[in-house]
Design goal:
Shape: elongated
Helix content: 10-25%
Radius of gyration: 17 Å
Number of strands: 11
Number of domains: 2
CATH architecture of the largest domain: 2-Layer Sandwich
CATH superfamily of the largest domain: Probable tRNA modification gtpase trme, domain 1
Strand order of the largest sheet: 1-2-8-11-10-9
Strand content: 35-45%
């Protein structure tokens, strides 16, 4: 199932869209070794990200959150397959967090400028490459930011309780992007 985009905000040099996303899961593992990572990658058909703040994207996307936690976006059938194949051999836990998250795609030549108004991360492509992601504070709320393959495109994920606040902040920040 692919992300469905809903138009939200368009301004000079930046477009912000709320995504009705694929299911989101967090996988917590007691320990991660090469064998477990290889098994996860094989079952979910992706290269499992073991390096801090990296991601893999495709039909299944996996984002490194901490040494023992990953955010996974995929279909529920993928998670069912994972629990059947991996369950006997490793200690881990998968939590469905789909309904507790709101996801935005921010793109355009001014996307990085927009995000820099509320985030201290250096999002320049030389520092924050297309395979990177990070947990950070954006507009005074905890968020998760990932750079898309396109140079000027980012995914921002936050707790859904902040949806209205973040939407308002993004709208205000979009309106002031051209005023720098």
């Amino acid at each position: 199932m692919l992300d469905t985009e809903m138009f939200l905000i368009k301004s000079d040099g930046v477009v912000v869209r709320e995504l009705q996303s694929r299911p989101h899961f967090i996988l917590y593992a007691r320990a991660m070794d090469d064998e477990f990572a290889k098994t996860l990658g094989h079952v979910l058909n992706c290269k499992w990200p073991l390096t801090p703040n990296t991601k893999t994207t495709g039909a299944v996307s996996a984002f490194w959150l901490s040494p023992r936690a990953w955010l996974i976006t995929c279909g529920t059938d993928d998670i069912k397959r994972l629990t059947k194949v991996v369950a006997p051999s490793h200690l881990y836990h998968v939590t469905d967090v789909t309904d507790s998250r709101v996801t935005f795609r921010i793109e355009g030549p001014a996307a990085r400028v927009l995000l820099s108004k509320g985030c201290s991360l250096d999002l320049h492509g030389r520092v924050f490459a297309s395979n990177m992601c990070a947990q950070t504070i954006l507009a005074q709320i905890p968020t998760f930011i990932a750079r898309e393959a396109e140079d000027n495109s980012f995914i921002v994920i936050a707790d859904s309780s902040y949806r209205t606040y973040l939407t308002t902040w993004l709208s205000d920040a979009c309106n002031s992007v051209g005023q720098l």
